[in-house]
Structures are given as C-alpha cells and as structure tokens.
Amino acid sequence: MFYRYANEFNIPLTKPVKHLSKGTKMKFALAIALSHHAELIIMDEPTTGLDPVFRKELLDILKDIIKDKDKAIFFSTHITTDLEQIADFITFILDGKILFCKQTEELLKQYVIITGPLNLKEVVQASQPISFKETSLGFEAFFETSRATEIISKYNLSFKKPSLEEIMYYLVKSNNNNK
Predict the structure, then answer these.
(1) How would CATH label the architecture of 2-87?
(2) Which residues contact residue 68 at a Cβ distance below 8 angstroms, ignoring those fewer than 6 apart?
(3) Which of 2, 32, 42, 91 could make an SS bond with 101 (beta carbons 3.0 to 4.6 A apart)?
C-alpha cells in the first residue's frame, strides 16, 4: 500500500527523507499514514509553506480520504480557506476555550456583514451587532443572519456572507471588547 501511494504521490524513494522538499515530506508522511489504513489522521498545519499547486493536490487527496465514512482527518491550521474547502466541522479555540464547534456550512450561513453609510450608523448600532467597525466609506456591522434580515430590508443595506476568516476576526474582536 505504501508503494502504491509513493508512486501516486511521485515520492522519490531513493532520496533520504531529510533531503526531500517540505511538500514531498508531507506526501511521504501521508503515504505512511494511509498505508496503515489509519482511521484518524491528525495533522498540524499540513498546508503551511506548500506551493499552491501541491496545496490544492493535498486538499484533494484529503477530500478523497474523508469520502470513506470510516476515516476522519483532524487538522489544525491558520489557513482558513483550507478549512472552508475541506472541513465538515470547525472548532475554533480562543485562549484555551472553545468559541464554537459547528458544521462548516451552518457556520458560514449563520452570520452576515452589513455595510452602509455613516448616516445609518446609529440605527444599525441600535440593533446590537456582534461587532461594529467604522470605515472611511461608512461602516461594517457583523450580525447573526437571523437578527439582520429586518434591518437589511428596512434600510436597503448592502450585505455579504462572511468568509470563515472574517467570522473568526469579528468574533475575536467582539470577545476582546467584552473582556
């Protein structure tokens, strides 16, 4: 099994591991883990420092692995776009405390960022956003989607679905403001 993965991942088995690139070392480690039919693979920052092409390849490999319902991958990363692409669940830990643990799709639907002109600042702030930021062009307000629907339609405000990175930013900012 190891040799099948080594061949599939183009790992040069004649080179000592210490002479392999970071990406090839990651492939090597993955080939070893997969060859043991691991049901749980734990990875720390698996895509950090990888070139964009191999990073995408690795994420595709990991997606194929988790198609098997008997296998799971747990990995920690600061690259939130990787999590959005591959994670079924996101657990966000801040200062040693779990801030949330949710299905990725549910989490991404839960929040909205509203933008608007400064003359509507007080109206929006009165609706108690989770976080509020004044900009040179107006404001950004971070809300739970269910709390924002009425104010968006009433004042015809612009809104967007935040990325995972934006969700984490606003929740951390809000958490720090509440200390």
Answers:
(1) 3-Layer(aba) Sandwich (3.40)
(2) none
(3) 91
CA 46 to the chain's CA centroid: 13
The amino acid present at 120, given as its one-letter code, is L
What number of CA atoms fall less than 13 Å from residue 130's CA on the CB side?
22
Taking only the tens place, the pLDDT of each residue in 89-101 is 999 988 888 988 9
Q: Give the pairing type, strands 89-94 and 72-76.
A: unpaired
Count the neighbouring beta carbons within 10 Å of the beta carbon of residue 49: 11
> For residue 55, what pLDDT is reported?
86
**Is residue 141's pLDDT more than 70?**
yes
pLDDT band of residue 126 (cuts 50, 70, 90) is very high
Closest CA to 120 of 137, 108, 104: 137
